[in-house]
Each structure stands twice: as C-alpha cells, then as structure tokens.
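Researcher: Batch entry, complex prediction.
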Amino acid sequence: DTEVTQTPKHLVMGMTNKKSLKCEQHMGHRAMYWYKQKAKKPPELMFVYSYEKLSINESVPSRFSPECPNSSLLNLHLHALQPEDSALYLCASSRTGGPNTEAFFGQGTRLTVV
Amino acid sequence: LAKTTQPISMDSYEGQEVNITCSHNNIATNDYITWYQQFPSQGPRFIIQGYKTKVTNEVASLFIPADRKSSTLSLPRVSLSDTAVYYCLVGEGAGNNRKLIWGLGTSLGVNP
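Model: Structure tokens for the complex:
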C-alpha cells in the first residue's frame, strides 16, 4: 500500500465555519506534511510532523491548526478562513523527515472559502 | 538561500526525448536533487533523485555535472501522458528544520 488518502476531495466552507481535512497513510512513514497549492504555483510547505511531533511550522496563520493523533493520521483543522485561503491542500508522507527522502502525496482536498 | 531555476514551459512531440535543466547554484554539500511530476488536480509524484553523475530508473534519467550547480532531467520518448508540470527541488535549512525548496516548475506539453 503506497497510498496517502485525503478526505474530503472537495470542500466548500463559509468564513465562519469550522471544518477539518483528514489524511491517512499505512506505509509506516514517520513524517507527514501539509502543503497548500494555489493554481499554477508550486506547493508551499505549511507544517511538518516528525515522529508525531510538530517539527516545522512555516509561520502559518493560527486559523490553520494541525493535529497528528497517531503515526498514520494527520488532520488540518480550519476555522475562520478567508477567501484567499481557497486552494488545493496536499498531504504527504515520507519514511523519515529528511529532505532527501521520497515523499508520497495524496490527491489533495480542493478547498473553496465563500 | 538555496533556490532552483527552471524554464517555465517546454513543448515537445510524441516519441522525442525531452531534457529539462534546473539551476541550483547554492546547493549544499549534503543535498540531493529531487524531481517531482504533477498532473492537474493531483498530488505530485516522485520521479527521480540523485547526488552526482548520472542516475537512471524506469521513468527518467538525471544528469548532474561535477560542480552540481545544475541538473538535467531526461525523459526518453515522451508520450501524451507525460504532459505535466515537472518540479526540481533541493534542500534548505539545517538539522530538524531541513526541508525541500520547490522550484516554480516546468510545464511540459507533449503534442501528437
């Protein structure tokens, strides 16, 4: 199983809503990532979890709150988002957290904030 | 600050070899060069990674000169399904804060 599964695939939310994005992998990877990708731009790193601990937060606004309940799961809690937060949110995992380790990406959640 | 530079777009025809070059003048001694492929509305997919000289797998080859300030991704005999964005990445930072830096990507169009 070399899959990273993200749910939901699409999400539309209002600016006052609270929602969560979910990510799951069963490859035994110990690093998991959240990326944000706008149209025609490269993915932007948001958070990195290594061995279930937050190791990198790329100065992401607090309206995005990551959570790693266990080594297979990664959540991104969303609250009071702005329309400019609309983007493709990608989850990835890798065997370890180093930059030279192959990362496996999910299909992403297409988020629209209205 | 490590960064990569690659062409914004390229066009090719089916059956041709495509070479995409990436510049990474400030690559660190212990950094590898990694390439990912991304189709529209999908997550990126790892293609190949190398440190020096030449690496080949079933999908592509990666050529890295001795000074490692650039690298060339070579896709042999492309098909329509190779139409995608190709990203060149190197590392940045130190210790637990090391992470990959994504280039802006090269949009490859393959024509029949």
